[in-house]
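Please, structure for the following, as tokens.
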Amino acid sequence: MKRYTISVEARSDLDGIWDYIAERSTTETATEFLWKFYASFQSIASSPSAGVAMPDFQPAGIRRFLMGKFLIYYLPARGKISILRVLHGKRLQMKAFKEQPVAKLVRRKPRYN
């Protein structure tokens, strides 16, 4: 199993997605949707070059992977990937990165089980 870590900002993005879906549907639907992200993270970790390189984004080496209407930004490293942000495709991507730069990575479990 390939490893991945999730930044504080990506965790916040996922929490916001979960809240949005749970408010408009059910907590079960929101949880099921988020587990699709975790499956995508695992898939990306297995094939880190699957995403598109983002040369204009910092830090250098960021890649982007499309999952439905969402974009997963990640940074490949030796033996793992770091999930940096998870943003809706309609959001201004570069602006989101500048407004909330990636600070640090966390490895805690999600709050939605």
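Residues 3-106 form a domain with the YaeB-like fold fold (CATH 3.30.2310.20). The beta strands are 3-7, 52-53, 63-67, 70-77, 80-88, 105-106.
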